[in-house]
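Work through what follows:
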Amino acid sequence: MNPVEIIQGDGPIVLGMPHVGTFVPDEIRAHLNPRGQMLTDTDWHIERLYDGLLPGVSVVRATFHRYVIDANRPPSGESLYPGRNTTGLVPLTDFDGQPLWDTEPDAAEIDRRRAAFHAPYHRALQAELERVRARHGVAILYDCHSIRSHIPFLFEGKLPDFNVGTAHGTTCAPQIEAAVHDVVKAAEGYTSVLNGRFTGGWTTRHYGRPAEGFHAIQMELAQDTHLASEAPPFAYSPERAARLHPHLAEILARLADLAPSLRAGA
């Protein structure tokens, strides 16, 4: 299976989707324990949630599961959140801190997965961002994520509905951060935070280089905003998604409208 799927649009926005894939090669699945084989920590239905919200948007989507290797972690394996509970390049535990593997991958196996899955995804994402910037003079990466709203191993209490991450304002122009934050703050019936528990993963931090015309922002949605249940089978809720759609569509439309003013020399 191709590790990445690409939809090329003609607009300035690229949607990154590193955690929606559920493909696990048989030889890797055989080493997962029964808990790992449930693939609980998927960003369930994110590709469906964002489908059709912005004409001309590009999409770069990983097809492999994050338990194979996490496309939103540094290839070096260093922690995104030193001193805090998190998961690594190849997660050994799930988001509840429970083991995933009957046989954990060794360094050679991690290297193999890095070359076979992580690297192709990022080559594709880099190429798409460069294509978009060449066309528009700017590229805005909106990295799409979701997570269960209650995970005591990672954070206390209930996660806000909208979690916006810009690595504390370093990965995008302030106009982008403000536009997204303004929409989520005004979204009636929803909660939000800017650079809270999730400040942006490796994708956001790596590609967000505003001075070069590459802007990146991460959106981590609490899954109860669009799932019928945050437990198996993690069914999509069309009713909840329909309530969420106008806010997501407004975010993407505002970013597209901002893009021309962010071109070099604009």
The chain is about 30% helix and 15% strand. The radius of gyration is 18 Å. Strands lie at 4-7, 13-17, 58-62, 139-147, 162-165, 192-194, 214-222. The longest strand covers residues 139-147.
